[in-house]
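Lab meeting, item 3. Inverse folding demo.
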């Protein structure tokens, strides 16, 4: 579990591709201060497992499904990446609940500066639009952000100067693709109240409300 508060921007030092998977080595420092083999680290919002590490880098394997579903396939030697360690139980919850399981990729449609803020519009798959509300939360490349607006094709975010400087999202331009994770709470609520062929036991009905004591 993560919070979407980026701790460090690392640099990809090696990419070792296979047919449908790959292995990444990432040069960094801060997130290695207490790392152990098997720890979870979020790389551009994707939860990866540390398979090896040294004093200045770690290595992680990226399975075929993750390669297919995220932008990690586009990383090259020298690419900067957002890094975050899993949330400590005694730490402050600075962002929002982030699982590190990306729902899909989006494309930056426009970037505009307004005084000290950068506004970005990001297009996403239509099936994901239902999880967005103005002033809600979204994770973009691992960064916890507030949704400033919802459009017919996606959503709008605004980057404050700290976010611009402390993560890679401020370096993005129109046409770049990003990893997007929707608010986990919205997905759980949908699962609980919706009945369909994939979720035949779910759904909020009059019978369930009566059985739960909300109606008589």
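The presenter then showed the designed sequence:
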């Amino acid at each position: 579990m993560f919070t979407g508060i980026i701790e460090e921007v690392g640099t990809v030092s090696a990419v070792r591709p296979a047919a449908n998977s790959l292995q990444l080595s990432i040069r960094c420092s801060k997130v290695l201060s207490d790392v152990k083999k098997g720890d979870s680290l979020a790389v551009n919002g994707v939860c990866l497992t540390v398979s090896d590490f040294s004093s200045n880098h770690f290595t992680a394997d990226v399975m075929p499904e993750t390669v297919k579903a995220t932008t990690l396939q586009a990383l090259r030697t020298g690419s900067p990446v957002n890094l975050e360690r899993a949330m400590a139980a005694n730490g402050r919850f600075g962002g929002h609940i982030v699982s590190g399981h990306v729902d899909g990729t989006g494309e930056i449609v426009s970037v505009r500066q307004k005084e000290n803020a950068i506004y970005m519009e990001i297009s996403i798959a239509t099936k994901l639009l239902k999880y967005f509300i103005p002033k809600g939360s979204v994770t973009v490349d691992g960064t916890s952000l507030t949704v400033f607006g919802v459009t017919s094709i996606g959503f709008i975010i605004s980057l404050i100067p700290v976010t611009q400087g402390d993560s890679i999202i401020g370096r993005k331009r129109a046409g770049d693709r990003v990893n997007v994770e929707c608010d986990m709470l919205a997905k759980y609520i949908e699962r609980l109240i919706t009945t369909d062929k994939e979720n035949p036991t779910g759904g909020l009905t009059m019978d369930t409300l009566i059985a739960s004591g909300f109606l008589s």
